[in-house]
Every structure is written in C-alpha cells, then in structure tokens.
Amino acid sequence: MTQGSLLRQILEYENRHDPYPLYAELRKAPVRNEDDAYVVSTYREVLSLLHDPRVSSDARNLTQSAGIDLQGQQEEETTLPPSFIRLDPPEHDRLRRMTNTSFGPPHEPRRVHEMRGELGGIVSDLIAGIGSTDRIDLVEQFSYPFPVTVICRLLGVPREDESRFHGWADTLAASLDPMPGEDPTERNKVFQKARTELGMYLAGLIEERRKNPRQDMLSELSTLKGPDGSMTTMELLSTAALLLVAGHETTVNLITNGMLTLLRNPDVLERLREDPGLSVPIVEELLRFEPPVQLVPNRTTLADIGIAGVTIPKGASLWLVVAAGNRDPLRFEDPDRFDPDRKHNEHLGFGSGIHSCFGAPLAREEARIALSELARRLVNPRLLEDPPEYRRNAVLRGPRHLPIACDDIRP
Amino acid sequence: MPADGYLERLKREGRIVVVGASLAGLRAAETLRDEGFAGTLTMVGDEPYEPYDRPPLSKGVLLNRTTPDHTALPRRRALDADWRLGVAATGLDMAAKRVRLADGEELEYDRLLIATGVRARPWPHEREAELDGVFVLRTRDDATALQKRLTDGPRRVFVVGAGFTGSEIASACREREIAVTVAERGAAPLVGALGGVVGEVAAQLQRESGVDLRTGVMVTGLEGDSAGRVRTAHLSDGSSVEADVVVVSLGATRNTEWLTGSGLGAGPRGIACDAGCRAFDIRGIVTDDIFVAGDVARSPHPLFGYQFLSLEHWGNAVSQAETAAHNMLCKSVDRRPHMWVPAFWSSQFGVNIKSVGVPSMGTEILISQGSLAERRFVGVYGYQERVIGAVTFDQARWLPFYEHLIETTASFPPPFATVDRRPEGARPVPADFPDPSVPTHGPTVTLSGYSPADRRMTFTPGRH
Ligand SMILES: Cc1cc2nc3c(=O)[nH]c(=O)nc-3n(C[C@H](O)[C@H](O)[C@H](O)COP(=O)(O)OP(=O)(O)OC[C@H]3O[C@@H](n4cnc5c(N)ncnc54)[C@H](O)[C@@H]3O)c2cc1C
Q1: What stretch or stretches form a coiled coil here (chain B) (predicted)?
Q2: CATH of A80-292+349-409 given 1.10.1060.10, 1.10.630.10, 2.170.190.11, 1.20.1270.20
Q3: Hey, whose CA ends up nearest to atom 18 of ligand 1?
Q4: Residues A94, A376: Cα–Cα separation, whole Å
Q5: How far apart, in Å, are the Cα atoms of B75 and each of A96, A277, B25, B26, B192?
Q6: pLDDT tens figures, B357-377
Q7: Among A73, A181, A251, A383, which is most buried by a count of CB atoms within 10 Å?
Q8: In chain B, which stretches have pLDDT less than 50?
Q9: Mean pLDDT over each residue of chain A, to the nearest integer
Q10: Helix count and strand count (H, E) for chain B
Q11: CA B47 to ligand 1: nearest atom
Q12: How far is the CA of B275 from the centre of ligand 1 (A)?
C-alpha cells in the first residue's frame, strides 16, 4: 500500500474542501489499481460499469480484501439484512420494486408530487425560525432539519415523535463522520444505542401501522401484498433505515453545497431570485458540479472486465468516482465551470443503472424548493467563511457548517 | 469555392421542402433551423394535424389516460415554417426539382426531405374492411374512432395479428376489462420481432391476463350483419368468433406510391438511401438533394453486414431525421453517417419490453439475466457467434451494456458471469424465428437489402 496514493490523498481530510485537482490527476489513468481497489474516474468508464451486469453490489461477492475501510462504522456489524442498495437482482429488484409501489416511480411521482405543498411549508417554517441574521449556520438551521423532517412525514413518524427521531438521526449521521481524537469505543456505544432505539421505535411503529394503516410509506409497505409478496419486518426495517440514512445525508449536502456554490456565483443567485424556474437546471448542474455522493465504493467484479486498456480481475473491489466523471473534459465542456445553462447535462450525480438514486425525484424537489426559497427570502446573503469546515466523510461530501449572514429575511 | 458559396446561399435563402409532417419531418425541420437554415421551409402533410406522437395511440389513448388531441409532439424550438397540412404530395419531378401537391400546386425545392412513413396494412378484402366496427390503428383519427368504440363497451374485441401494436391493443382491452380475442398466424405473439422463445412468454402473459389467444391460425373472413356492422370473424381452423369490434394489426405498408415513375429508388420496401440519408435513384445512383428519414427509409448498416434496414422505430425516426437535416446543409466531408443502433420499446400487460440491435437476425438466444418464468429477464441474441441483439422484459436499465456488446461485435454466447444469471441462462437455445419467407404481422425491423444467401430477389429491368 503506497502511502501517497491518489486515493489516500482523496481520503485525506485536508483535501476535502477541494478534491477536484486530485480527481483531474486520477483521470489521467481512467482505471487504476490503488490500495487493492480499482479506481475508475472517467465519465464513459464509470457509466459503463454502472450498467455492467458483471459488477455486483453484494458484499458477499468480494474476494480480495479492500484496502481501505472507507465506510467506517457504516459497515458495522448489524443484525439487519442488507438493504437493497447492497443487493443484486433478483433480491434487489424485488425490494426496490416493492418500495417503489409506495414511493412512486419517476414516471409517476405521485407521492413526491403530492408532497410539494408540504415541502414548501417546512421550508417556510425553517426560514421563519432562523432568527438573527448576523450569523446563520445554514447546515444546522436549515439544510439539516429539512430533509429529516421530510423523511419523518414520508415514513409516517408522528409529529410529536419527530424531535426524538431527529436525535437518533443526528447520532447515526455523526457516526458516518468520524471525529478524530474522540474515543471510538465511547462513540460506538452511543451509536449502537441510537441504532437500537431507532430500530425498536420503528418496529413499534410498523406494528401499529399494520393494525391501523394510514396514508404513509410505513403503512403501505407493511401492509403490501402484491405479486412480489410482502416485506418481512426485518426487510422493512432495513428499507426504512436505508431511506432514512440515504435520504437525508445526501440532501443536506446537496442543499448546502448548492447554497455555497450560489454564493460563490452571485450572478446565478441573482438570476434564481428573479426566476425560481431556474432552480431546475441549477439543481442538475449542482449534481454534476458538486455531487453529494462523490464516489460509489464497494462494487465487486464477477468476471474479468477489460476496460480502458486495463483488465480488472474477477473479485476485485471497484470504486467508481462519479464526481470525477462529472468533471471529465471528454464529456463536459469546460467542466470546472458552474454553468446552469449547460445542455445535455447527463451527470452521474445520482449514479445510473439499477442502483440509480431511488430518492432522486424527492431530492430534486427538496433542493429546488429550498434553493429558490433561500434565494428569494434572504436579503443580500454572503459567506462568512470560504471554504467552510467540511465533514470528514469523503463519500458523502459536504460542509459540516456553513456560516452565512444576510441583511434581512423577506416574508 | 463555388460549392461553399452555394451552401451559404442555401442556408440563407434556399428552399427546403419536407414531405411527411410527423415525427421525422418535425425533428428534421427543427434541426435545420438549429443548424442555421434561414430560408423557406415548407412542411407538407396529408393529415390535417400538426405533428403528433404515435406510441401513445396504442397505449395511453386506448386506456383513456390521454386523448388523441393531447398527443401533439412537444416542440424543441420555434420553426417558422409554411405548413401545408391536409394536402398530400402526389408526385415528384426530380429534374425540375418540384413536388406536386394534391391541390394542384407545385413546390420548388433546393433540398427535399421525404419522411412519409408507413400506413397500416388494411384488411385485404375491401368489402369486409368497410364493415362498421373494423379498425386499423396508425393515425390520430384511427385512435379517436377506436377509443370511442371501446368506451361504448363492446362485448368482444377481435384483434387480427399479435405484433407489437396488436398486443398493445389487446393489453389495453384487458386493462379495461373488455373481452378480447387475438388471432395470430405465427406460433406466438411477437414472434416476428423477438422469436419463439420470447414469444412464448408473451403468449403466457396474454393468456394469464385473460386474452383468448389463438395462434397458428389465419383469419379467413369477416362477416357483418344486415346493417353492415361486423359480427363474426372466421378462422382457418374452422372456428369463428363473435365480436363487434375488429382491429386489423397486420403491419405496415410504406408510403411510396406517390413517387411511382419519379425515377427515385422507391418501392414497397421503402426508399433506399446511403448511410448519409441521401436517396438513391432507380439506377442506384445517389442523389444530392433528396434525403430520406424515418419509417419510410431503408439504409445500410455496417453493424449488420451492410444490410439495408427498414426500421419502424421511434428513436430511429428522430436520429435519422437529425442526421439527414445536418447532411442537407453541409459539405460532403462534414456529413455524418446514420449509424444508430436500432432500439425499440413497448409496454403491454404491465411489462416494459425493450430491444436493441436486430433480434430478428439472431439464430440463438441466451437468457443472460433473470428468468423467463418470472418474465423479468435479459435475452441476448446471437448470430454467427456474435451478439446481434438483446431484449429486456422489465430490465431496461441493463440495456446500455448489451448495446455496447452489439456495437463492439462481442462474441456469443457471452462467456462471463452476470448478476442474476440463472441455470437456464447457462446455454443458448435456438431463438426460433419463423421462416422469413412466411409473412407474419411484420417485425419492426425488416432486412430489406440483398444478401448473397438471398436468392429470392429477381432483377426486372424497367421499360420506360
Ligand atoms: C400505434 C403505434 C404505436 C407505436 N409504438 C411504438 C413504440 O412503442 N416504440 C417505438 O419505437 N415505435 C413505436 N411506433 C412507431 C413510431 O411511431 C414510428 O416509428 C414513427 O412514427 C415514425 O415516424 P415517421 O415520421 O418516419 O413516420 P410517420 O409517423 O408514419 O409519419 C409519416 C407522415 O407522413 C404522412 N404522409 C404519407 N404520405 C404522404 C404524402 N404523400 N404527402 C404528405 N404526407 C404524407 C403520413 O400521413 C404521416 O403523417 C408506434 C407506431 C404506432 C402506429
């Protein structure tokens, strides 16, 4: 294992605020073998591997040791079965399909569509509650509580329990974000406790919803009986946990990265203020330019795969650096420029293929509403720290705090 | 540089006529404007409607999810065109560069694009075809009439031909709980396009959804009552079916009759063109000012042995139109070939079916992912030890991978393991396509070029 490998450097915290020069370095060899992993960084190659049925998401297919345990405690021993993000077809298809019947596929985004008004309401309340405008931590005061509240409403967590739920979610999210210098065993205990409590809480809620179903996802999933059968309680718990973790940690970063980018590009922010409709291409460009999920680790090859002149051997651990692919000059003209007017912006921000982001329609809607409302209501907003302090996590990358100030908040 | 000067003038003040104002015609026109054509653009269409989309006609419309007048194609940009709608082109004078219209007018052109597509093959017995209650489905008017009749609550619908359109119609009927019988000459639905192995899955889907599916039979006649309404369909096995709606889905005929005698290489198989969408004349010489795109075109494809392919595919119409439009305005060295890998989709009986490549060229099929029994699978077609096509049932997200295999002429059977490969996918089996000389409802890809193995084509010198 070479200490100074590019992969190592990308994982180094000091490079978190701007990994893009390292990605450019990576792309010089589209596929490289580093630290026992095959790192793929160019658009075409990443895209093709995301659609390659010789690539498995199931950890049980991994034969080589993956040099770096990047996920840290996310990969913690757990009694829950793997969620569909870590499964291959047919199990993946079955669970994702069943979850979809309640969430609504992209071409029929019923539930997301119906939530629009509610999303707007949550955003309004959060902005109204900001208080002093001299120093706002956008993460704590806005982009963090927003998606967690949304997940609560979506799953059907009763309002009175939302604050407890936020607490568990905070603890779990913090565990994705190892803090150096803290006692790991102590942290682990806290984390396990939160996990167990959340699990028990959800299990209780599922029991309750089985008896008295409502219009929420937990009810629908727990009473589902279709061509795919129904979900066991364990499957339902791991699905709920997946929705919870994947569904908010990413959106927080999308919104925070979004506001950071807009404040760095005041002309675009100004245009957004004039025309909220611009939020659609802005969010797409953000997903290319500053994707919340920077890389997709832990895929495994089921066969030797020849790609870009390299043969990736069977059983290898594969890391697909989507954020590097998103800035591949062979695919995107002037890739380091933030350009909401970009055409044919088929970014990899949501991945692609069968594991492409399940919550994409919701994430898009949340980010659009959040950013256009912030643009409209904050008067003369400005960054107080640039770059801000980042979270440690290299996979789910985003600021831990985003201190900003503004002159006033419009009604 | 006289040629350059000509192109500059063409772009600035030339006259371009597009015949066929549907998908290919519209997308070509938009591309012309995108690429800087500022001259006169005339769109000729024999239907009275602005360009509309056909796939929803057999899907959304029959399910009452949308109405035929809501199928207008979205516009990518403003066109500034002179629309001649409801007027057919009736002739072409290549020497004088004029298109004759049904109303007697003549349009001069510097460049002509032909995108007249295909029309539904009607029921061959004229009197029977005119019975009230007998339909075809190709146009907006067809869909309006059929939709209305389905909403009236027919006792039974009888579909002749189980190709994609026929199967989609049957699917819509079942979803609306209308009794439906489907008669197919081949051994199973979709066999012409996808072969017998996949056809068998389609047959099961239909039967389980309550379709009264009759395969291996021909419809010998349609009978009406004294009021001229269709009542009974007679089949070659001696049976008959009582139905008050009959939909004839026997494939399509290319709209080339209006070119008869023009000297253009146009016939029942379509209009032959080169890879750059330039039409051939009957002497096999490529024209410089006449281009073709969409269902009416047949063009050679390098991935498929330079066979001339006629494709009845939405995506092909778009891509070929864009290429044709580009090539109409540029120097020969800047022309692009139309090398689109054929791709097609359909949705029926709750299943999303997609294909790439030319499955109907395949001799063998291997189920590389999923399983036929679950009706969720990827089938890979092999031809002379290479991958030539693929089909997915509810597995569309994998398709780009298989498209890449086709494009790179990967070997067949694919030697590697894939996620979700089941024991049945260990070995290829015959794909089981019907003998191509036996007409079926028509695949959506037709090999229409000469192949050395094909001795059935005869050369008949013309007598002018
Ligand atoms: C019911 C239905 C469902 C379909 N579903 C799918 C699907 O799921 N997936 C898929 O890939 N494809 C599907 N298709 C095929 C797809 O719609 C066609 O490939 C596409 O419409 C081809 O476009 P085109 O412009 O080449 O031809 P057309 O759409 O046929 O348009 C040709 C136009 O030219 C007009 N015309 C003909 N002759 C003349 C003349 N002499 N003068 C003036 N105008 C003339 C015609 O009336 C017509 O309006 C479907 C087609 C139908 C009918």
Answers
A1: none
A2: 1.10.630.10
A3: B314
A4: 42
A5: 35, 19, 12, 8, 34
A6: 999 999 999 999 999 999 999
A7: A251
A8: 1, 451-458, 464
A9: 89
A10: 9, 30
A11: 47
A12: 21
Task: State the pTM of this model.
Answer: 0.91
Q: Give A37 Cα–ligand 1 centroid separation in angstroms.
A: 50
Query: Would you state the structure tokens that stand for residue B327, as one six-digit string?
Result: 């090539």
**Nearest residue CA, atom 2 of ligand 1?**
B55
What is the band of A176 on the pLDDT scale with cuts at 50, 70, 90? low
Choose which CATH entry (3.30.420.270, 3.40.1280.10, 3.60.150.10, 3.30.390.30) describes domain B350-430.
3.30.390.30
Which secondary structure element, helix H or strand E, spans residue A390, and what is its range? none
Q: What is the pLDDT of residues A241-276, one digit of tens each?
A: 888 877 777 999 999 999 999 999 999 999 999 999
**What is the per-residue pLDDT for B456?**
46
Q: Cα dist. A52→A45, B173, B382 in Å? A: 10, 37, 19
ipTM, two decimals, is 0.87
Q: From A58, which residue of chain B is nearest by alpha-carbon distance? A: B419
Specify the residue for token string 């066969």.
A303
Pick the CATH number of B121-252 from 3.40.190.10, 3.50.50.60, 3.40.1190.20, 3.40.50.720: 3.50.50.60
Q: What is the pLDDT of residues A47-104, one digit of tens each?
A: 999 999 999 999 888 775 544 444 443 444 456 778 898 899 999 999 999 998 888 7
* Chain-chain contact of A56 with B419 (C-beta, under 8 angstroms): yes
- CA triple A12-A17-A20, angle to 5 deg: 85
What per-residue confidence (pLDDT) applies to A71?
Answer: 43
- What is the whole-number distance in angstroms between the Cα of residue B134 and the centre of ligand 1? 21
Residues 43-72 (A) with a CB less than 8 A from some CB of B? 47-48, 51-56, 58
Which of A47, A54, A89 is the closest to B417 by Cβ?
A54
Q: For residue B248, give every residue at least 6 positions away whose Cβ sits within 8 Å of its Cβ, in sequence order, or none.
A: B120, B121, B122, B123, B129, B134, B135, B136, B160, B161
Angle between helices B164-175 and B191-208 (to 10 degrees): 10
